[in-house]
């Protein structure tokens, strides 16, 4: 019996020829990631273990992106824990306001995470890097501390679920719509403890940006990791970024899957996840005059060039609805610059949007767009739990950038096909 | 351990356990003051030391924040019993020494306010109000070793001193 791509990467990092689902293995880590929130818990834990340094100052990466630029004194004090430690350990890859981007967009852009890697991160959306053909998963701060100290961590090998997407991607349907649709079908625990492997002709046609979006939200179905077999597009993405060797793995034809889902998406509409679960997904045409107060376009899910281009195409030469606040957040400084050079930032500002330096801020209700009681937001982020973006009675509707931009113009949840 | 049950439904996410707007601190007591706030705003005021959280499927889904089990533990909750747990929460709870047990039968058959006793080593859960007894799946040896050492920190320390 063959192995899946997830099993092959784990076996290679455990120094063994074969692993099977359920087996517990100790695995060497290529990259260990922390942000300002999770580093602040992990660093004292690391010190309690008796360590004052990390296992390798080139493999532990800190990105200060959640409460940064600092939102208040408490956040500033918390960030200082990470900042001081990064200096003391001379971390080679430390990113703060000015160089910082949203971690899961920044690390691939900088070539820090590569195909075939095993990566852990103190952030649940660490599963994003599966789009490169890496095994990548989120952990809590104690696991993070252990990984930072030893460069190793134990894992239970996950069983894999295969998702096959057939047909042709309709206009305005992106990776976000595919993953929202998928989570809607299997539920927020539909892939609990499992690997989600995304395959099929539609995935092969998907841009690298859209692949990141799909793998990013694997955790919203409870998955340990999301993964896509690397191909020429991934080779094109990493070849000029990588500063160390990398390796492409592929699932064997006779690999074992716990389940297989096959979707024909040729007729798929843009999707919207209604409050308060990412699985509460509907077709955009089912949104019946839902008035909105805010739109957020950005985040580790949808703050990449493709997302900004899609939104700008819709907003170009138009005015945002007077009762809607639109916040556009390019995910990294490079994306921000590129968007300026392409004229996208001018389009957003002319349309009446606020454009911000990179930050996770509004996605988790931290700062830069917190909602009042009863307010509604269409957001390209990844979670719509109760209170996620602010007041306990506020509501978040998750969608891709096309629906978000169309909704910004109409002042209600809108189908992009009705505005262009 | 023994305590009153507080009952929750499916898919209690980490934003409900400890909203991210409070994550600008790592102080366990400050986090405990807001525990379960977006699921039950009065919870932190009602809970007493030793009380038990009972929930249905996928408890702790969402973010990787270790602040979630830290807030529950610091609020005095002695154990969380659920039909199932989200992956990262499960691992975090073990790592920080918050006792958790997976038992679909117990989760279904314990109601808000029931008196519950738990024998962790045996995985035995008793609903003292109804008299029903439930058996949770035992932990794999590997995890028991981490818990026996008092969490992952102590486990790593022990491994290092042994090698």
Walk me through the structure.
The complex is a heterodimer of chains A (420) and B (163). By secondary structure, chain A is an alpha/beta fold. Chain A folds into two domains: 5-262, Aconitase, domain 3 (2-Layer Sandwich), CATH 3.30.499; 273-419, 2-Layer Sandwich (Aconitase, domain 3), CATH 3.30.499. Chain A is 31% helix and 18% strand. Chain A has helices spanning 5-14, 36-48, 73-88, 103-109, 141-150, 175-186, 201-205, 208-216, 232-238, 299-302, 305-315, 333-341, 344-351, 401-410, and strands at residues 24-28, 31-35, 60-63, 93-95, 118-121, 135-138, 152-156, 160-166, 195-199, 225-227, 259-264, 271-273, 281-283, 294-297, 325-328, 354-355, 376-379, 395-399. In chain A, the strands form four sheets. Chain A has a seven-stranded mixed β-sheet with strand order 13-12-18-17-14-15-16, sandwiched between helices. In chain A, strands 4-3-2-5-6 form a five-stranded parallel β-sheet. A four-stranded parallel β-sheet of chain A has the order 10-9-8-11. Chain B has helices at residues 14-17, 28-32, 43-46, 67-74, 87-96, 104-109, 141-148, 152-162, and strands at residues 2-7, 52-55, 79-82, 100-102, 115-119, 124-127, 132-135. In chain B, a hairpin with a 4-residue loop joins strand 5 (115-119) and strand 6 (124-127). The longest helix of chain B has 11 residues, at 152-162. The mean pLDDT of chain B is 92. The chains are: A alpha/beta (420), B alpha/beta (163). Chains A and B meet through helix 2, helix 3 and helix 5 of A and helix 4, helix 5 and helix 8 of B.
N→C terminal distance of chain A: 51 Å
| DSSP strand content of chain B | 15-25%
Secondary-structure-derived class of chain A: alpha/beta
H/E element sequence of chain B: EHHHEHEHEHEEEHH
Compute the number of helices of chain A: 14
**Extended strand count of chain A:** 18
Order of neighbouring strands in the sheet with most strands of chain A: 13-12-18-17-14-15-16
How many structural domains of chain A?
A: 2
Low-pLDDT segments of chain B? none
Calculate Rg of chain A over CA atoms. Answer: 20 Å
- What is the C-alpha radius of gyration of chain B, as a whole number of Å? 15 Å
Share of helix among residues of chain A? 25-40%
